[in-house]
Design brief:
This protein is α/β, with parallel strands linked by helices and 1201 residues long. It has 6 domains: 226 residues, P-loop containing nucleotide triphosphate hydrolases (Rossmann fold, 3-Layer(aba) Sandwich); 86 residues; 199 residues, 3-Layer(aba) Sandwich (Rossmann fold); 137 residues, PCRA, domain 4 (Orthogonal Bundle); 210 residues, Lambda Exonuclease, Chain A (Alpha-Beta Complex), CATH 3.90.320; 74 residues, no CATH class. It has 41 helices and 32 strands. The strands form 8 sheets. A 7-stranded parallel β-sheet has the order 20-21-19-22-25-16-26, with helices on both faces. Strand 1 and strand 2 form a beta hairpin. It is globular, with a radius of gyration of 34 Å.
């Protein structure tokens, strides 16, 4: 029998029999637990591997899950698969809870992919484990002859790996415990710490920032371009009014503030050492002074706005992790760390993970680094392959070696699950051509074994297998005269390269077939990808393919604000901002969006009625923009242009971009009120279009039946059937004019000696010349060369079935990555160079001869006829197969879609609510002018309570710890910051008053026999934000409903409706020991008295009862979503506690009464209001049930206590 297909139930039974017969009881073998004898993990692993037929390829099943481990995962080797297996092992074999296992990867898209992959793996484990049925302990052998056909005997790799992990875990811990661990992991998946490095740092600051004196309460933005623009303008103005010579220097380096704004983020990057050093020259001193001034202004501007950027979070955690207590806290929270795409990290990020590992309990810690230095192509984002190599050396020095490790702690994945065997041979032939293929010591090429289902004959042309790699060799240029030296100029070279690539693609589409299961089908455009280096190259290829009749869609990292659609929308926004300006209206009409040419504009001038109609349309759209936002105003213009655009070349691109831009503008309108402010934001995004975060990168217009065109950077992590590389023989390099910056590795003197660090050297041909410029430029050139080699590797390893490379001799060939491998960068392109056309031709033919048939050279003939394209498969599909268009069944009314308690209380139209104390009234005139009150003070108290370490405020009895000038030492800085943030002086008296109120809130006795200072962090959620759906609901009907439920809404009969979403922030949700959940709100209001009757009067007067009813509905929906069928209203909902801080008396025995308004709202009341908001038709019965339950639950006096 094939051991790899042994059902897991039978396997576990056999293992236990063998264990009982063969293994004596001794300390190394294990102890009895849960009535089952345990042998050592190593013995279990060996026996399971023997039963399953596991071999050396199953690395993720063999590697130890403690200590240090670095896994080198070449392209296509199943890195994500291995990572999911490692996580599953930690959960099932080691018992880690998913929230305590940190997985860090590079992009947000990668985190979602990994989370989904892990979800599938856990579901698979749950299903396979359930197949054991009642055979939980394996001691009953009465069913040895039971038919196992019902087991899932799937032989795919994921199932085999999951079976092995389950078998080991069951043998180690028993089936019952494994069942519980799987169930817990499935429930905890949404809480799993799978994030980007920035997400991890923000979370670390939120949870542990106090240990390092940091607060993480600022909003995080991805793009701070607007702030940098303001900083640049401020610096420019200050310079203009200061030293003339210094300002002349500034103008010489940056001609205008916008140019300075583009460079300031790089200049102020604290992760890079700034060169030249400040003491080299007066110009260098000014550069450092500029950096310091700009950084200070930037930090101040971000603080005033309450914002933080992504890189600042990394810097804060990096500095904090140098403190042993902070690093130890992170290690206790996340003892197991898996760092994916480690080759894209930098030195600071590695410092963070290393420090956390070093401060974690050695018996629990695990740091696993997964990456591939050959794919480190994000140097422009801070990725540093030298950091990877430093970490590899650290692992080798400190890790315990496993049996299979050549280097201690370092493993590799050597099976490729992507490419056909011939493609792997061709790639290896190319990179083995050079002794140092990646132009950097320490990065080597690894041979891989083909393990995918792809075969060399999957792709065929005219029933003959295609070569895995085809090199299309362009002819020598013979029409340029002697000065051309047989080479074309850039335009001719680009055109011929694109033509050769298009011919190869058309040939595949016309004559190629691809294996699809047991059948064959024609090659489709979507099977092919074109990879380029620049966006200009992508545009050239898209035009060339479109002209040839081949659909092509571009996928790029360029900003959507840099395209034609952004220009057209900017003109339209200008016209809508001033609809009476005839010049702006004509400019908008003349764009491609509106489509008016000169003749149409002239006709419009001659036709007064037509002009008036256009003007009225713009005025109507402008009014719609002011009333409902930019999307409803702009969308009709784009919809009218859609049909016209889709019939034009590049029209799909413009349509996709226009819709994307409208979406971004609408999202931004929530923070920027008014047409002018929104238009100014749009213009700034266009000015800074070079910086594109993930949300602003170009979207793929359509990949259905289209050749995909992508930059090499964007293609990383993807795979394609056929990869075409048109421009490998050309390097586009801009002229180095004015100020230039380059990243280099330099030795920097530190307290411990010389350390190699990444530096950024700035230089200008006249105004900023470092003393060692030549050496620095040479180092920068070496770094650029090494990254070019890595980009070539990424491009070649995207292909599954075939590669097509266009190759030629031109004036930039000598700087290309492939030329380095073939000719070691030998000069070519000049008349006197030793390497000429014939030598290059001989080299590629020698490469093909050495490949064993995996590489073929074809001399390209630009005059050869191009084959006719076949009709696409999908063109023959019947139209009837298209599903009918979905039509909306609901329409939102004219009222705002977002509603809040604040808006309902004020009966105003403002739909937005912010967390804090904005609903609290200003104080009356107080006899004591030093006594604080009002919204600002309330917000300060809320800020402290939101971030406070509650345990630090625990009071002894009698509660007299907080005198006039006393507060917990660890919390005083927090109180002072909160006061200053609200514009209140942090005097000793103000700090003491704030501290007294905070202490009262955290020490008051609350329902459920709870004090907030005693609650574990898992028992409460602070500032819980919520949105919940509202069906069409009239305000007067809501008033009647509340009155019938026993909560009269101030006897208001209001016009208007609620339709959309209710949103808000709950100060605190906590859970008592019985599992009941309460909503809590802090109030700093001054009241004449704080007895139950006075509190009830204040609650009714300010509609606080409506507020906490809304909160309880939100809490009910949240709990139902999280608990599903296990949720129970009566058991899980406790009610509302409103804490009026000025009335709290901590000397009262038992649950506080004075200053605390308690309302155990009946569960049926909350359910009835929830049904009302949700448009339930059976509301009458729900109200009746609610009234009955309310009479049973509490009397009015009790409810108001």
């Amino acid at each position: 029998m094939d051991r790899a297909r042994v059902p897991r139930r039978r396997l576990v039974r056999g293992l236990r029999r063998r264990r009982r017969a063969s293994f004596p009881r001794h300390r190394d073998a294990g102890v009895r637990r849960d009535g089952v004898e345990r042998m050592s993990a190593e013995h279990i692993h060996a026996q399971v591997d023997a039963k399953l037929g596991a071999n050396d390829d199953d690395g993720a099943l063999r590697w130890p899950l403690t200590g240090l481990r670095l896994i080198e995962a070449s392209a296509g080797t199943g890195k994500t698969f291995a990572l999911a297996t490692l996580v599953l092992r930690r959960v099932l074999e080691y018992g880690d809870a998913l929230p305590n296992l940190l997985v860090v990867t590079f992009t947000r898209a990668a985190t979602e992919e990994l989370r989904e992959r892990l979800r599938r793996r856990l579901r698979l484990a749950q299903r396979l484990h359930a197949q054991d049925g009642g055979k939980r302990n394996g001691d009953d052998d009465s069913d040895d002859n039971r038919d196992d056909d019902s087991d899932d005997d799937s032989d795919d790799g994921e199932t085999r790996a999951t079976r092995a992990v389950l078998a080991r875990a069951v043998a180690l811990h028993g089936a019952e415990r494994v069942t519980a661990r799987i169930a817990a992991a499935v429930l905890q998946l949404d809480e799993a710490a799978i994030s980007t490095i920035h997400g991890f740092c923000h979370r670390a600051l939120r949870e542990f920032g106090f240990r390092a004196g940091l607060l993480a309460s600022r909003a995080v933005i991805d793009d701070a371009g607007e702030i940098w623009s303001d900083v640049a303008a401020d610096v420019w103005r200050a310079s203009a009014h200061g030293d003339r010579e210094a300002h002349a220097w500034l103008v010489a380096l940056w001609s205008e503030p916008d140019a300075l704004a583009r460079d300031l983020p790089k200049l102020c990057d604290s992760a890079r050492t700034l060169l030249p050093a400040a003491d080299e020259s007066e110009s260098a001193r000014r550069l450092h002074a500029l950096r310091d001034a700009a950084r200070a202004r930037y930090d101040a501007a971000m603080a005033v706005r309450g914002l933080s950027d992504q890189d600042r979070a990394i810097e804060d955690v990096w500095r904090a992790s140098a403190q042993p207590t902070f690093a130890a806290a992170l290690g206790t929270r996340w003892p197991a760390l898996l760092i994916d795409e480690f080759q894209d990290t930098d030195a600071r990020q590695w410092d963070i993970f290393r420090r956390v590992y070093e401060r974690t309990d050695p018996s629990k810690r695990w740091l696993c680094l997964i990456g591939d230095p050959k794919q480190a192509i994000y140097r422009f984002r801070g990725g540093d392959p030298d950091t990877y190599l430093d970490a590899k050396r650290y692992v080798a020095r400190h890790a315990d070696a496993a049996e299979s490790d050549e280097t201690p702690g370092v493993s590799s994945l050597d099976a490729n699950y992507r490419s056909a065997p011939g493609v792997l041979r061709a790639i290896e032939t190319v990179f083995r051509r050079h002794a140092l293929p990646f132009a950097k010591d320490g990065i080597e090429f690894h041979s891989l074994r083909a393990a995918s289902g792809a075969r060399d004959d999957d792709l065929r042309v005219d029933d003959a297998a295609t070569p895995p790699m085809t090199v299309h060799w362009l002819p020598e240029h013979r029409d340029g005269g002697p000065r051309s030296n047989g080479m074309r100029n850039k335009d001719l070279e680009y055109a011929l390269m694109a033509a050769a690539a298009v011919d190869a693609i058309v040939d595949l589409l016309a004559r190629g077939t691809l294996r699809d299961g047991d059948a064959r089908r024609a090659v489709r455009p979507a099977d092919i990808a074109v990879l380029v280096q620049t966006h200009d190259q992508a545009a050239s290829m898209q035009r060339a393919l479109t002209d040839a009749g081949v659909a092509a869609a571009a996928l790029s990292t360029a900003s959507v604000f840099a395209g034609d659609a952004a220009h057209d929308l900017d003109a339209l926004l200008a016209a809508l901002a001033e609809p009476n300006d005839a010049g702006r209206l004509r400019a908008a009409l003349a764009t491609r969006l509106l489509g008016f040419d000169a003749a149409a504009l002239r006709a419009l001038d001659d036709d007064g009625a037509a002009w008036d109609a256009q003007a009225a349309r713009f005025e109507s759209a402008a009014e719609l923009w002011r009333a409902r936002g930019p999307l409803p105003a702009l969308l009709p213009f784009v919809s009218d242009a859609a049909q016209r655009w889709l019939g034009e070349s590049g029209g799909a691109r413009r349509l996709t971009d226009a819709l994307h831009l409208i979406e971004l503008l609408q999202a931004e309108s929530a923070q920027r009120h008014g047409a002018n402010e929104q238009r100014l934001w749009f213009a700034r995004q266009r000015a800074s279009a070079a910086r594109a975060d993930e949300t602003r990168q170009l979207r793929l217009e359509s990949d259905a039946g289209a050749v995909q065109i992508a930059t090499i950077h964007r293609s990383k992590g993807l795979e394609y059937g056929v990869v075409v590389l048109p421009f490998l023989a050309y390097v586009s390099e801009g002229q180095a004019r004015g100020l230039v910056s380059d990243d280099v590795r330099v030795d920097v003197a530190t307290e411990t000696g010389l350390e190699s660090r990444t530096a950024r050297v700035w230089h200008h041909n006249t105004h900023l010349v470092p003393t060692a410029l030549d050496a620095l430029l040479e180092a920068a050139a070496r770094e650029a060369r090494a990254e070019a080699q890595r980009q070539l590797y990424v491009a070649l390893t995207r292909a599954r079935h075939a590669l097509h490379i266009v190759w030629s001799r031109n004036r930039s060939t000598e700087r290309t990555a492939l030329h380095y491998l073939l000719h070691d960068g030998a000069p070519t392109g000049r008349k006197d160079d030793a390497l000429q056309y014939a030598g290059m031709s001989d080299a590629i033919r020698e490469l093909a001869a050495a490949s064993g048939g995996s590489i073929v050279v074809r001399d390209y003939d630009p005059n050869a006829p191009r084959p006719a394209l076949r009709a696409r498969d999908d063109e023959a599909a019947p139209i009837a197969a298209t599903p009918p268009t979905r039509r909306p069944q609901r329409r939102f009314g004219p009222d705002p879609r977002l509603h809040s308690f604040s808006a309902l209380h004020a009966r105003g139209a403002e739909p937005f609510v912010r967390p804090g104390a904005d609903d609290e009234t200003a104080p009356e005139v107080d006899d004591d002018p030093t006594t604080l009150g009002g919204t600002a003070f309330g917000n300060a108290v809320h800020d402290v309570l939101e971030s406070a370490d509650a345990a630090a405020w625990r009071l002894a009895l009698p509660p007299d710890l907080f005198g006039e000038e006393t507060s917990p030492p660890s919390q005083r800085a927090l109180v002072e910051r909160a006061l200053r943030h609200q514009g209140i002086a942090a005097t000793p008296a103000h700090v003491a008053q704030t501290a007294r109120l905070v202490a009262r809130a955290l020490n008051a006795s609350l329902p459920g026999d709870v004090r907030l200072c005693d609650l574990a962090p898992t028992q409460c959620v602070r500032e819980l934000a919520f949105h919940f759906r509202l069906r069409d609901t009239r305000l007067d009907a809501l008033s009647r409903c509340l009155t019938e439920l026993g909560y009269p809404w101030a006897q208001r009969h209001l016009a208007g409706a609620l339709d959309g979403f209710m949103h808000g922030y709950i100060d605190l949700v906590y859970r008592d020991a019985q599992g009941r959940h309460y909503v809590l709100d802090y109030k700093t209001n001054r009241l004449p008295a704080y007895d139950p009757v006075a509190l009830r009067r204040a609650v009714t007067q300010h509609d606080y009862d409506l507020q906490y009813l809304i909160y309880l509905v939100a809490l009910r929906r949240w709990l139902r979503l999280r608990r599903g069928a296990a949720y129970d209203d009566a058991r899980d909902l406790g009610g509302a506690a409103y804490v009026f801080l000025r009335g709290i008396d901590l000397n009262e025995a038992g649950p506080s009464v004075r200053g605390v308004h308690l309302d155990p709202v009946p569960a049926a009341t909350i359910a009835a209001l929830d049904a009302f908001f949700d448009g339930d038709g059976d509301l009458g019965r729900a109200k009746t049930d609610a009234k009955t339950d309310a009479r049973v639950a509490a009397s009015p006096t009790e409810r108001g206590s």
